[in-house]
């Protein structure tokens, strides 16, 4: 028993929360980080029990490996003076699912929402080869904000995959032998009851029993004795849900039954598949036609199987949707249908329908190979490479010409520019046209193009139509132009920032340059096209969740076109209504290395970890989460490079660590971007700047009281400023268009590119001097700690990312490291790394995207 006021390491006990079979739980205060936590302590008499101790430690290892919003986070593990271990996790406010079920069944809509969250949490665990084995309402928590959290991985078991389609399930060291029953009666799978070896499908059975109880208010399997309950699990099916709740749709009944199959081979084979099915059903309880139609989708984010597997899943869900739809006496007779076009593992860029309507042309990088442009057909399987290595498709004209981009330069975020070339789709050599182009679209007659290009001499983005006539110009990034069929408007994305962040607004501009915003405040915008009737703009967007399909009229009337159970991006729309859609799964992977270590450590956290900085001592990395886990305003995290759990600091974009690691500098997400100081421990955040400058990248001076930063004033090119953190006052130290962020260790110079030459620019004033040995397209990353060398990389050396050391005295360069993941599949390259002051620690980012193309019919 831990008394209030006592301490366990840096944790001060506040009071008792409860107790379970695996230990007692207390509320405590983390005195280092100033946050409340939950601590589970094993009683001292249990510490001598080898099996209990093994299972307790296994819970810690299993749960700490899981970084998912629907699984309780584990922060730390320690040992008391008496040898009893403890686990430190996030403190949850709310109630268990068991507590909630004591009041009766859940509303159908709420049950589907909760079940989808549980399934996503299970999927995250199963992706890490971890099986829970004791899933029950007592081990599921509902927070006050409605988020489901899976608790207690004390019975979790790691599994290892065998070769090919077979799977061999191997217990961890000292794991439970076959014949030993673990779990909770009433929620066990048949294989658990028999004491047989279990895998992730056992969790799926337990999930089905819980979902049944959430809908019906009654347990799926319950007898007079435990033996009777176990017998029912082995032999009996639970009563039909319609017998307990007449409002239950056949579609839900089918999902539950499919989870509760006695034979594991006949159940759902993936928790992720269940989650996507439930996401598609999210509107059934209200009778929404859109939600019912979405049931026929049947997509899985983890779909990497052969064609017959995908067709089988889609068929199952279509049948479920039709059954429910018929029961609802709907008059609608058509459902959207989804035909896969691609069947390989890798990333996909832009895709367009060919002039004949049956050809699909797209950029892709398969199985880690360099990217190429491929052609496929909507009426047959297979694809053919066109032989344009490292080229990105931009558009296809009605006249049969293809626009491609080569020599692409990443401008930050999603912003790109490169050389625009034209080539016939029938074959031939590319004909270079314009430099610094990001996106294009052809007019309906195939004779003119709208382009988005960057003007480096003025640091501005332009939308032109026809080429040379500027309709939109400014420092804010714009993308994705699509010309209306009548040629009177161009729809595009106005992102409202200069850094390549894909948040922003859907807008149109007419031929006189009058811009109209149709729909704004989206946290992510990807993919846009005119509707078949040209009366709406169709687009895929997100408010911090997965991307769904929307439609907006020129008067600004917005509607949801379809609810998607997976992240999608609209590519093209044909006049007959067929839609080309890309389904993709993004994951941003952070790899951290240390001198003397043979392997690198994964340091990413959720799904969209954007690496920003490393602390001077190399002990921490700074990043923000910009995906589903990060929310619409993103969440900034710091994480120890030893792999300990990440700590959320606040919202916005990460920028830099202070020299003493007590603060991190962040920016807001809306223009003008303002600097905010966030404490890494106890303390309060404060906004530092209140001006009209977009504050982008920064580095602290050694005194920790000032920073140099790259900023952009409205209507002006970017430049370098010096900012006093106490007063919030800043002053420019370079002319417009002269930028850089590598600061010398003594804080006296910053490396900048001025008129094509790299210069050492004095921070406090004075004459700059050239840096010998640098080329105008080199990228200067950072100074070494002794100030005698700089780390340099090349924009075209990304797979792997080669980093060089350049001697400032001689101009000679030597290779420092070649950086990259073990597997390049879906990854275009490695990012520019962040490096500690002594050069002994580093980290870099890999953006991995696995995608598939579909032709969709029936969207209206």
Fill in the keyword field for this structure.
12 helices; Methylamine Dehydrogenase, Chain H; Transferase(Phosphotransferase), domain 1; 56 strands; mainly beta; 860 residues; 6-stranded antiparallel sheet
What's the tally of helices?
Answer: 12
Low-confidence stretches: 157-182, 283-333
CATH topology description of the domain at 92-327: Transferase(Phosphotransferase), domain 1
How many extended strands?
56
Largest sheet: 7 strands, antiparallel
Q: What average pLDDT do the residues reach?
A: 85
Helix share, percent? 10-25%
Indicate the structural class. mainly beta
Separation of termini?
63 Å
Radius of gyration: 28 Å
Under the CATH scheme, which architecture of the domain at 92-327 would be assigned?
Answer: Orthogonal Bundle
Read across the widest sheet, the strand sequence of neighbours is 17-18-19-20-21-22-23
Name of the top-level CATH class of the domain at 92-327: Mainly Alpha
Provide the β-strand percentage band: 35-45%
CATH superfamily of the domain at 92-327: Transferase(Phosphotransferase) domain 1
Shape: globular
């Amino acid at each position: 028993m831990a008394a209030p006021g006592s301490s366990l390491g840096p944790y001060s006990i506040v009071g008792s929360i409860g107790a379970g079979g695996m230990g007692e739980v207390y509320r405590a205060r983390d005195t280092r980080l100033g946050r409340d936590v939950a601590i589970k302590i094993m009683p001292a008499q249990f510490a001598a029990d080898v099996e209990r101790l093994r299972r307790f430690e296994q819970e810690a290892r299993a749960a700490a490996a899981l970084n998912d919003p629907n699984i309780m986070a584990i922060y730390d593990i320690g040992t008391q003076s008496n040898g009893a271990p403890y686990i430190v996790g996030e403190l949850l406010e709310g109630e268990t699912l068991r507590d909630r079920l004591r009041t009766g069944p859940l509303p159908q809509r709420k049950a589907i929402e909760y079940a989808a969250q549980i399934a996503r949490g299970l999927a995250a665990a199963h992706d890490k080869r971890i099986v829970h084995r004791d899933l029950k309402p007592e081990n599921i928590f509902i927070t006050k904000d409605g988020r489901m959290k899976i608790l207690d991985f004390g019975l979790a078991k790691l599994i290892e995959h065998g070769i090919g389609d077979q799977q061999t399930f191997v217990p961890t060291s000292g794991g439970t032998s076959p014949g030993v029953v673990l779990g909770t009666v009433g929620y066990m799978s048949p294989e658990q009851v028999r004491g047989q070896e279990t895998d992730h499908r056992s969790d799926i059975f337990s999930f089905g029993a819980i979902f049944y109880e959430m809908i019906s208010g009654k347990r799926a399997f319950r007898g007079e004795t435990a033996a009777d309950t176990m017998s029912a699990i082995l032999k009996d099916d639970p009563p039909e849900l319609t017998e307990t709740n007449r409002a239950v749709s056949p579609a839900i009944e089918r999902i539950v039954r499919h989870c509760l199959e006695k034979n594991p081979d006949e159940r759902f084979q993936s928790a992720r598949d269940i989650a996507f099915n439930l996401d598609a059903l999210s509107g059934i309880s209200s009778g929404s036609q859109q939600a019912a139609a979405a049931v026929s989708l049947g997509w899985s984010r983890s779909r990497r199987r052969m064609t017959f597997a995908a067709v089988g899943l889609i068929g199952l869900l279509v049948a479920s949707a039709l059954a429910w739809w018929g029961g609802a006496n709907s008059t609608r007779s058509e459902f959207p249908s989804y035909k896969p076009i691609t069947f390989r593992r890798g990333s996909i860029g832009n895709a367009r329908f060919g002039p004949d309507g049956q050809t699909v042309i797209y950029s892709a990088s398969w199985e880690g190979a360099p990217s190429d442009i491929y052609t496929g057909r909507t009426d047959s399987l297979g694809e053919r490479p066109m032989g344009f290595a490292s080229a990105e498709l931009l558009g296809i004209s009605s006249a049969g010409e293809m626009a491609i981009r080569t020599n692409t330069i990443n401008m930050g975020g999603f912003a790109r520019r490169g050389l625009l070339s034209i080539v016939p789709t029938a074959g031939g050599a590319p004909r270079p046209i314009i430099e610094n182009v990001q996106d294009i679209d052809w007019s309906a007659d195939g004779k003119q193009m709208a382009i988005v290009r960057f003007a480096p001499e003025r640091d501005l983005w332009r939308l032109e139509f026809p080429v040379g006539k500027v309709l939109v110009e400014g420092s804010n990034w714009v993308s994705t132009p699509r010309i209306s069929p009548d040629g009177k408007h161009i729809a595009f994305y106005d992102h409202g920032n200069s850094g390549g962040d894909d948040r922003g607004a859907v807008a149109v501009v007419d031929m006189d340059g009058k811009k109209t915003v149709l729909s704004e405040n989206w946290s992510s915008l990807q993919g846009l096209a005119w509707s078949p009737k040209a009366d709406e703009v169709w687009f895929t967007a997100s408010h911090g969740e997965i991307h769904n399909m929307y439609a907006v009229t020129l008067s600004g009337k917005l509607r949801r076109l379809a609810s998607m159970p997976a992240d999608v991006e609209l590519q093209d729309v044909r006049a007959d209504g067929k839609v080309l859609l890309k389904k993709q799964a993004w994951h941003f992977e952070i790899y951290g290395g240390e001198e003397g270590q043979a392997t690198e450590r994964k340091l990413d956290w959720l799904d969209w970890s954007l690496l920003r900085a490393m602390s001077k001592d190399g002990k921490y990395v700074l990043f923000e989460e910009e995906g589903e886990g990060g929310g619409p305003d993103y969440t900034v995290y710091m994480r120890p490079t030893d792999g300990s759990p990440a700590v959320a600091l606040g919202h916005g974009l990460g920028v830099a660590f202070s020299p003493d690691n007590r603060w991190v500098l962040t920016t807001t997400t809306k223009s003008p971007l303002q600097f905010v100081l966030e404490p890494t421990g106890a303390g309060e955040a404060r906004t530092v700047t209140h001006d009209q400058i977009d504050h982008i990248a920064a580095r602290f001076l050694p005194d920790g009281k000032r920073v140099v930063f790259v900023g952009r004033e409205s209507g002006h090119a970017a430049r370098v400023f010096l900012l006093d953190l106490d007063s919030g006052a800043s002053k420019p130290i370079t002319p417009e268009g002269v930028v850089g962020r590598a600061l010398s260790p003594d804080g006296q110079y910053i490396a900048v590119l001025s008129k094509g030459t790299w210069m050492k620019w004095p921070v406090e004033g004075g004459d700059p001097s050239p840096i010998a040995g640098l080329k105008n397209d080199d990228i200067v990353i950072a100074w070494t700690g002794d100030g005698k060398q700089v780390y340099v990389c090349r924009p075209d050396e990304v797979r792997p990312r080669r980093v060089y050391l350049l001697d400032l005295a001689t101009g000679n360069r030597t290779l420092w490291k070649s950086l990259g993941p073990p597997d390049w599949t879906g990854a275009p390259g490695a990012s520019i790394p962040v490096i500690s002051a002594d050069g002994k620690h580093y980290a870099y980012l890999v953006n991995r995207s696995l995608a598939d193309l579909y032709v969709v019919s029936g969207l209206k």
